Amino acid sequence: MMSLDGSVVGRWSEPRPFDVTPASVAAYVDAVGGPSPVYAVVPAMDLVLAVACAAAPAELRARVVHGQQDIFFHRPLPLGETITVQAAVLGLHGKRSGTVATIGVRTYDVHGTLLNEQYVTEFYRGVPTDLRLGTPSPTLPADAPTGPPLRTATSPLPVDLPRRYADASGDHNPIHLDDEFARSAGLPGVIVHGLASLAVAGHTVLPPGAQPARLSCRFTRPVAPGDTLTTRVWMDGPGYRFESVDRAGATVLGAGLVELARPSVI
């Protein structure tokens, strides 16, 4: 079994430019069914893959599942401008069932102002290690929301969503596009990108005009294209908790958390 390289932990990449074009934003909006703050992941998509591959041989990528996403928003991405992104493997933490890799992302505008910070958690299934390096992702709520939800909505996940999301986001992992490859990786077939599910759920979670300061969730179960996503939202102080289930009632997005940049009207 090939191993992961702990020497890369904490090594930030060189800044990489990205043009936030109207066409790129429009393609993302079209793929996920409306404007979404999750577009913030797009500028760093290729860079996250590059730093992850520096830690793990390409042969291990088939074993990777996206475990968690945490985005802290400081300022909106400037439409029509060039921004820069940096990424690094922040931590590698092994256990008997596999190894967790935490990847950090920082996004800056042309003046060097920090626009957002992101934490991408990847889990290498069946790659156990004794690594205890760096820092893990920020914690998410361990308890489930209680009481009746504030709102609930069900959204379809179109059969062509993985292809459209791959083209709009730059994430062409074959587990989302190739049935045979997905099955060889131990999946029942192609699955919807976790971030696509998060973007779709976000339409229910965020009221119109609300600006998140933080948007986070745990990807608890794969969901197939053609399924549905039912999202339940609870108030949580000045923000929200949420979770999403598939048609069978299995939790797909868990420990969902939103902190708002400013109060919103429900």
UniProtKB/TrEMBL annotation:
Assigned protein family: Belongs to the enoyl-CoA hydratase/isomerase family.
- Give the organism, scientific name: Plantactinospora mayteni
Q: Which residues form a coiled coil?
A: none
Name of the protein in its database record: Dehydratase
What span is annotated as the signal peptide, if there is one? Answer: none
Annotated InterPro entries: Fatty_acid_synthase, HotDog_dom_sf, MaoC-like_dom, MFE-2_N
Q: Where is the MaoC-like domain?
A: 153-244
Region Disordered, as annotated, extends over: 134-158
| Domain (Peroxisomal multifunctional enzyme type 2-like N-terminal): residue spans on this chain | 37-126
A Pfam short name: MFE-2_hydrat-2_N
